[in-house]
């Protein structure tokens, strides 16, 4: 009896140690494997704020190979996912995609932006969805199909080919000029 109670306590403690809750959002430590994706481990999570104080979403970075050094993540051809949990009614699909385009413009060259232009238009069309507080979406790289999958509220909206697009998108959050240094640090798993 004592042994099973102790075992139950240890299991509950281990699960709580693995859980992360930000702004009331429970962010899972592990995303189980699916037919299209391997098991993904959370690298880190953070709250994205604009104007320094308006919280718009909780973002979490998941990686298939969590042993990668921070600087290897963008170049590595491994499964990865950036998940967004919308925490504000001020977020709309248009604002979200505008922020993506702004983040891209400071992280990739003008020539690269031109090269990506058709695929970026496709990306914007995949985000044509009503965002409300509680909306959950993700951008996931699938190495096997060499495509980026966009899903919102559990529904896959479509896919876009090319690792260069996914690499460019990831630079918005963890590149040399991220939208927020704090967000970058925390989604890479470095909490203060």
From TrEMBL:
Q: Where is the signal peptide?
A: 1-19
Annotated Pfam families? Chalcone_3
Q: Which UniProt keywords apply?
A: Isomerase, Signal
- Asked if the Swiss-Prot or TrEMBL record annotates the protein with the keyword Isomerase, the reply is yes
> Gene3D superfamilies annotated for this entry?
3.50.70.10
InterPro entries in the record, alphabetically? Chalcone_isomerase, Chalcone_isomerase_3-sand, Chalcone_isomerase_sf
Instruction: List the Gene Ontology MF annotations in alphabetical order.
Output: isomerase activity
All copies of the Chalcone isomerase domain together span 21-189
Q: List the SUPFAM superfamilies.
A: Chalcone isomerase
Say if the entry is tagged with keyword Nucleotidyltransferase: no
Instruction: Report the domain of life of the source organism.
Output: Bacteria
Q: What is this protein called?
A: Chalcone isomerase family protein
């Amino acid at each position: 009896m004592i042994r099973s109670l102790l075992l139950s306590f240890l299991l509950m403690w281990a699960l709580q140690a693995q859980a992360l809750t930000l702004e009331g959002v429970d962010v899972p430590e592990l995303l189980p494997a699916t037919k299209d994706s391997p098991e993904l481990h959370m690298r880190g999570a953070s709250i994205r704020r604009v104007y320094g104080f308006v919280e718009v979403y909780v973002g979490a970075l998941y990686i298939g190979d969590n042993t990668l050094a921070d600087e290897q993540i963008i170049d590595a051809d491994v499964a990865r996912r950036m998940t967004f949990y919308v925490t504000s009614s001020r977020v709309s699909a248009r604002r979200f995609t505008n922020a993506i385009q702004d983040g891209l413009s400071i992280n990739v060259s003008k020539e690269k932006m031109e090269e990506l232009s058709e695929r970026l238009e496709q990306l914007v069309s995949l985000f044509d969805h009503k965002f409300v507080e509680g909306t959950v979406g993700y951008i996931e790289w699938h190495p096997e199909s060499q495509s980026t999958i966009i899903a919102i509220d559990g529904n896959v909206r479509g896919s876009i080919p090319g690792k260069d697009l996914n690499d460019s998108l990831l630079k918005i959050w963890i590149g040399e000029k991220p939208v927020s240094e704090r967000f970058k640090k925390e989604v890479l798993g470095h909490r203060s």
